[in-house]
Every structure is written in structure tokens, then in C-alpha cells.
């Protein structure tokens, strides 16, 4: 059974991301299955830290991006919107180049909050970071 309120609009979401941090960092949403959202980010001059590997904060940006987009389409977007409430991350492996892929899956989809498990891997499918993201589900103003 699908978690999505409506079909997830990959192309539209990628287009909307172009003028913000997601686009500037090269984040791309790739696909949405019945219970997950998958995306990726390049490891390049925009996303590396001075030591030459993916910046840990950029891993967190990818995790929150995936959880935020996912939450936005689990709820009825005409009535609710979701905002990040808490995030944590454990960085497990340095990535010097290539792509990092992320998959967000729900741990909890409640009325007022969502909790997402986000796993990041390198191109060899080795785990690089694990993150838990909590999203607050809020009524859209004027929609009471």
C-alpha cells in the first residue's frame, strides 16, 4: 500500500528545487516507490569540505530534503504543510567523489508528526550516513 496522498511528482519537485539550496547543491530526486523517496547529490566542489570529502552538513541537507519532500506528499497539501523539527545524523564513511544516494522511509506517519529513516550510500552501495528526521505536520493557514 502506498504512503502517498497523491502520486509523487518527481519532475515538478526537481523543477521547484532549482532556485534554492537543493538546486545549488545539485540534489536530484530520482524515484518514489510505495514507501520510499530516493535522491542523490554529487560530491564535487560545491559539496566537499576542505579535507576533500563530502561535507557532513551536506549529508544532513540531503537527508532533510528527502524527508521534507516525502512528508509534503504524504499529507493532503491543500490542508497541511510539513516543516523540519529535528534531525540527527551519524557519519560512517567519507566520500571523496562520485554520487551519494539517499533513501527516506517512514518510521512513523502520525497526525501531527512524521519520523523518517534516511540512509545514505556511496556508488558502491556502502553506507555513508544514517539520519533520523522528524517533521511537524501543520495545518495550512486559513484551512481550519
Automatic annotation (TrEMBL):
Presence of keyword Transmembrane: no
CDD domains, sorted: PaaI_thioesterase
Domain of life: Bacteria
Sequence similarity: Belongs to the thioesterase PaaI family.
Domain annotation Thioesterase: ranges: 52-129
Protein's UniProt name: Hotdog fold thioesterase
Matches recorded under SUPFAM superfamilies: Thioesterase/thiol ester dehydrase-isomerase
Keywords assigned by UniProt, alphabetized: Hydrolase
